[in-house]
Amino acid sequence: MTLLDISGLTLDLPNGNRLLDGISLDVSAGETVGLVGESGSGKSVTARSVLGLLPDRATTGGSVRLDGREVLGAPMGELLDLRRHRASMIFQDPRAGINPMRTIGDHMTETLRLCEGKSTAEARARAIELLHAVRLPRPEDHLRQYPHEFSGGMLQRVMIAGALTSSPRLLICDEPTTALDVTTQAEIITVLAEQRASRDMGMLFITHDLNLAASLCDRVVVMSGGRVEEHGDARRVFREPRAEYTKRLVAATPTIAVGEASVGRAVSAGERIETSAPDTRLPSAQSRYGAGAPTRPAAGPMLATLGLSKTYHRRGKEPVRAVADASIEIARGGALGVVGESGSGKSTLARMIVGLEQADAGDIRIAGRERTAAPRTRDERLAHARSVQMVFQDPYLSLDPRITAGRAIEDALRLHTRLASAEARTRVLELLDLVGLAEQHANARPRTLSGGQRQRVAIARALAIAPDVLVMDEATSALDVSVQAQVLDVVAEIRRERGLTVLFISHDLAVVRRVCEETVVMKDGEIVERGRTVRLLDAPEHPYTRLLIDSVPRPDWDLDAVMAEASIDALSATQG
Length: 576
Known about the structure:
The protein has about 575 residues and is of the alpha/beta class. The protein has two domains: about 1-250, Rossmann fold (3-Layer(aba) Sandwich); about 300-405 and about 445-540, P-loop containing nucleotide triphosphate hydrolases (Rossmann fold), CATH 3.40.50. It is built from 23 helices and 20 strands. The strands form four sheets. The protein has a six-stranded mixed sheet, sandwiched between helices. α15 (about 405-415) packs across α16 (about 420-435) and α17 (about 450-465) packs parallel to α18. The model is unreliable at about 260-295 and about 565-575 (pLDDT under 50).
């Protein structure tokens, strides 16, 4: 039975821009259809059209039929009924979709009481049932908790449970696992697959992770520039893509292992994908950056830590050991990957190295200089900042929305150098050119830039003072595959030209394989395995490393086998 039928959907803004141009797709009961493409391709707008969540004054054409009822042009009362009983939507960021001032119980029972007419006791019982269905370990206790007490994976399961309160026929998932680590992603996908099967529910699954789409979806629709480029059986599309755009998209997708049965391949440094999206188009990488892997690092450590430890003490609660006895070493010009689940201690390790956290014990040396003690004077703080810089996961939060991209870079130059205004401006343009941006971007504020452009501005700002070490903390996790490839190309080229040393923190093992010569694996604050990246990913020794690798989505992904190796409840307990 067809639950969703979109035919010839168009959407035009008042300024004449066409966001959707003749989109057609359908979803049947018990089927998962993937909607894939880069940022700006029209995926989310297409999904929002199903619930009537379109921009004000937008002009639409074609048809969107949900469970036999036309959505386009429907009165608000009918739209509310469709949203309450026919379709629900799960968004990418669960923390943005739930009131932080209200308990999980309030969030779960409100719809049941107000829309379903259930009593308080009935709503509570139903909420507990749904939380249990999405594999939260202590539903009764969770109802009394607040969102800040949950990990990202646990809170996403709350959002799934909330979306299921109305027993929808169609579940729309808009990038629900983008920012999650691989094992938590496996848990969420398992939950969604179980609910789809048990309820005979249709799913429209939006993602830019092509491996995930190939492993989860029955069919996929590939979008670019508001148009459908290709559609068909999920595994066929990614193993044998027919459209040129799909071929380039697959080629830009890194894989975790060479030669495995997996979508795509790792892209060599300098190789790019050219797309129809204007914000991801750059000059030829061959002429701009050259090709080939980064040069072999020079001998001698640029960054070294010995026995680094950090414990957080919370009033009235047990202390949390974030990092315990962590020792790492990176040669000048080298790249070390740090992988592990959320809460494993990766970011705390990085923040201690940068100086945003003070270590309880251990030593940090950068270029042979001791950097463990907190800087006491302004000169000491500036000297430390000049030696190590950090690029964060969300560039929108790390850039001041009130100032332009050029001003953000220029401020860093003025703080750390004695360049005159004209010299600083020239240097800003050189740095923007280095990361693949034009002079026009210097006058743009963060909100007018794409995610990939903002991240490149953040990298340019970090490189403005020529640091010895660049720390990248999940700096590419929220980017689509082509923009991610561009950002990684920039880093690879700067390593070649300047001998930059990189500490690369990520939960994407395929990206780590492409970027880093060596990798360490962290669990519960400890380093449980280390070694050459290729050896570690091809022949892992520690069971936890094997779990991480098995959790990476691929077309032949066996979710049952993955979750049998590590029980979901046990993982939830460690992450909560």
